[in-house]
Design a protein that fits this description.
Shape: elongated
Structural class: alpha/beta
Radius of gyration: 20 Å
Number of strands: 15
């Protein structure tokens, strides 16, 4: 469903997925390509002026922390008591150090935006001639060998085809007026956590494409669960970049809105080098754990880089695919 960035390293950053009713703004932390050969076509991390504060499990002092952040000149972007994580912006280096020394703070991590899907040029490749007759899910017979590979066409005749299920797609947004998606998208739940793109409209194409694979009207292309209800949670911008804080928020938001499945056809293959990096993984894991407790299944792409995730180095991790509780 998506190609992911090649191996990348975390870098020192300043703060950071799609939000909940109790959340404010949005945005994740960054990584740098560890292989110089891949830096030409993948931009490095971009600081977004945010920090993710990871409080100790079960901390009951979030309101006190919020007050101190504000007294130090910072702004609360999101407060997520369900996972004991707070996203803030506008902190000085001294303020970061002060907050990091609190007894109820497990860690504080600068956030950055990183590429989580390939550029449009990388995905599209050479142009193909479109079929003029798209009736009856024309693409299924000719192109959609992947659905036959997983025997989705066999399941259509013996299952509920996803009826009664809500699938939230964390991606670049969606085109709800697309002929294959009209009437499929729950616009009341759908939202965006990308500050530069506050609407749900897909300016990339990736989110729309992934959504139609999950549930479509079967005109242009067939889908896995034709009767499932969709919601879109925008956590990536039109370039495919996204922040870890937006990803975290998106997972929490979907679980709070009783999603049966969270689909994340995105990710980054990162090298964990410092204690700060471990804290960021912990914040993501907390979001997944929260979703699991709510009965939400998290699914993520393993990547298209042929990395053997069963034999990679111990300090490498594909996130979110290799987090505990995620179907990869």
């Amino acid at each position: 469903m998506r190609a992911v960035p090649r191996p990348v390293r975390f870098v020192v950053i300043t703060l950071a997925a799609a939000g909940a009713a109790a959340c404010a703004d949005q945005a994740p932390t960054g990584v740098l390509p560890s292989n110089p050969a891949v830096t030409a076509d993948r931009a490095g991390p971009l600081a977004n002026g945010r920090h993710i504060i990871i409080m100790k499990d079960g901390a009951s002092t979030m309101s006190n922390l919020v007050s101190q952040v504000q007294s130090l000149g910072g702004r609360i972007v999101r407060a997520q008591p369900d996972i004991d994580v707070v996203t803030v912006s506008g902190l000085s280096d001294a303020a970061v150090a002060t907050l990091g020394n609190r007894g109820d703070v497990d860690g504080i991590r600068a956030d950055q935006s990183v590429p989580m899907i390939p550029t449009r040029e990388q995905i599209m490749g050479q142009m193909v001639r479109a079929q003029t007759d798209q009736s009856g899910a024309q693409f299924f017979t000719t192109f959609q060998w992947n659905l036959r590979q997983i025997r989705a066409d066999k399941a259509w005749t013996v299952t509920k085809q996803g009826k009664g299920s809500l699938v939230c797609i964390l991606d670049t947004g969606i085109d709800p007026d697309h002929l294959d998606l009209q009437g499929k998208v729950d616009l009341g739940i759908s939202t965006s956590f990308v500050s530069t793109e506050p609407d749900i409209l897909d300016r990339n194409f990736h989110g729309t494409f992934v959504s139609a694979l999950i549930s479509s009207n079967g005109l242009g292309m067939a889908s896995v669960a034709p009767d499932a209800r969709l919601c879109t949670i925008k956590v990536l911008d039109e370039t495919g970049r996204g922040s870890f804080s937006d990803l975290i928020s998106g997972i929490v938001y979907a679980a709070q809105h009783d999603a049966d499945v969270i689909n994340m056809s995105l990710g980054a293959y990162v090298q964990v080098q410092t204690k700060d990096d471990v804290q960021l993984i912990k914040a993501l894991q907390r979001a997944i754990d929260f979703a699991k407790r709510r009965g939400t299944v998290a699914v993520a792409a393993a990547g298209n880089d042929t990395a053997n995730l069963a034999r990679d180095a111990r300090n490498m991790i594909e996130i979110p695919a290799q987090l505990k509780g995620v179907i990869s």
